[in-house]
Amino acid sequence: MSSRLIVISNRVSVPKAAGAAGAQGGLAVALNAALLEHGGIWFGWSGQETEEFTGHLDMQRNDGITTATIDLEPQDIDEYYNGYANRTLWPLFHYRIDLTEYDRNFGEGYERVNERFADAVLPLIEGEDLVWVHDYHLLPLGSMLRQKGVKNRMGLFLHTPWPPTRLLVSLPLHERLVASMLEFDVIGFQTSEWLESFLHYVQKEMGLKVNPDNSIDYQGRRVVARAFPIGIDFDEFVEGAAGPEARDAHDRLKQSVRGRKILIGVDRLDYSKGLGERMEAFGRFLADNPEQAGSAVLLQIAPPSRGDVASYQMIREDLERKTGHLNGAYADVAFVPIRYVNRGYPREQLAGFYRAADIGLVTPLRDGMNLVAKEYIAAQDPENPGVLILSQFAGAAHQLKDALLVNPHSIEHVSEAIKRALEMPLDERRERHRKLLASVRDHDVRRWRQDFVSALFGDEAPPLLDDASPEDSSEPQDQTA
After folding, report:
1. pLDDT in tens, 44-58
2. Crossing angle, helix 371-379 and helix 347-356, to 10 degrees?
3. Which of 107, 212, 405, 480 has the fewest CB atoms below 10 angstroms from its CB?
4. 159 classed as catalytic
5. How far, rounded to the nearest angstrom, does the alpha carbon of residue 347 sit from its chain's CA centroid?
6. Which of 38, 159, 398, 433 is catalytic?
7. Which helix (H) or strand (E) is 300 found in, with range?
8. Is-catalytic flag, 466?
């Protein structure tokens, strides 16, 4: 394959600065790996403001990857990013219609910035390039590029969930938005659940034909829609987890807890992550198991995000209040049960923290995939692995069926899973980890990239995914705590 990839996303992560950012989200890690293997350009917003939009491209090359960025005006950022992307689409796509804001100015800003992206990236696209657009920020971009004469194969990958039809129809101009998405040749989702929701919409609301292979007939074209679950760069992560920085982080954390069991959560500060419910569940565990109340520590790493959006400020205040309440109730002069940290860490340090933790708590209320769950598995010692407690509403749950799957809305369910995980025999921990590790290893970022790019080329499509792990058997898996 000689064609380049033109990757387009809201933000661009320059490789030399990607360590801390990549530790908190999967997009930077995944796309850096894809571009290193395939070549091309990563285009997007620089994250910087300019008084007046000029469309000036800042081109850089670092560690073999070429990036091209533009600056946006304050009004663009307020309406497109803080507005339509994060106050309209993000809550709606995470089933939080109660937090979804509909504002005409947001929608106009969203269209305007997508048009600016299209104008700026157009000169970078050559005849044989494959255009790969990412996420909910840029859903109309394919349609705008088509209008400007781009005939290249183009694909869209959605990193978030896709909402059920009954929720999506609450969005003004929802059919127009989906119609613009159908200008892509390939539309990818994290799981078959989100794919099925999308196909249901195009059938019921748009009256389109969906073929047995899940392709869609639209205006004389055939659009491929498929599930492509994203993974981690397994080999790179395992190598980093064995390095000196990870070992030092592991040893420091272990020494600081003085023999106590460690539970770890690593999440952006976001209402979709279920952090308040997680704190309450840990509090319930401490209350219901007083004999273990002084023997377990929860380390919650939650870097702030989207601080200009009021709902995120409320989340931070709520978590600080709950952390203070629980620490006040269960701490003594030499021990606090919750370590709540509002900062990010490089991925190597996080790998060491994961390896030190007896339990990985990954309990979002709704999540597209959640690569923290996969990183936690990859970081474990196979001879003495920790236990992953995973929300059944995370995309990763479709693959990681040997985790303890929980309903994060049920405080009691998560509390009982914590107790079960702390008491789980070594043989059971090893067996669960063996199956989980096989799934994480076999469904890594390279497979994700290869499957999507193959579909984008129009090659023989990979088989439809059933979201099963490679070692699933006919026996039912234990999915409850």
Report:
1. 999 999 999 999 999
2. 70
3. 212
4. yes
5. 15
6. 159
7. strand 296-301
8. no
